[in-house]
Write a structure and sequence with these properties.
This protein is 4% helix and 43% strand. By secondary structure, the chain is mainly β.
Length: 220
Amino acid sequence: MLLVLLTSCTASPEDLSGKMFTFPLKTNNAHVRLLTSVQDLGAFTVCHRSFTDLKRDHLLFSMATLSNPNAFLTFWDAIHNEMEVHVKDRTSDLSGLDYKLNMWHSVCTTWDSTSGLVQLWFDGKPLVKKFATTGTRIQGPFIIILGQEQDSHGGGFDINQSFVGMMSDVHMWDYTLSACEIHNYMDNLNFTPGNVLNWRALEFQIFDRVVVEKEEMTCD
């Protein structure tokens, strides 16, 4: 187990298979910054698993650029029981999710600049496609963060939007995955790891109280 307090630490690419990030406290600082050399995206897929007991609004994944604090954001809106997906600061609200507390949930989100369509998959099921933005790519420098929602490039954290819980299996690709590939990810089958972010070779920095520990999954 690795515990990092009140400081940051840079790791060379690390295989986090079978591990998770635990965010044990409500704070306005504790977060993990994910590092990538890719700084230009015309499409993407982002997948991750999370476990929380939060009954309030909270962030799941935040990517900011200098011009777009919400270049890509997945955010749970507890008041309206909706998942918000932001692409280049444009919001799509997705409802009808069975977002239960104290359970692992798998989320994948795709976007393509040609069609402008965004789609979220939740626990293996696709939600309706929505139009976000088209015709322009997302260009860095990127700051990608777990644990806090960025209202500015790398900052502007709000304690009441912070994530408390566990996160694992974070991958990002620079293309939209097929339905079969998304199912393979969600069912823990063989899949091609992300070429932007790869949980099996992840470069990251930890700030404040975040724990890297063995992944805990509920038994059937």
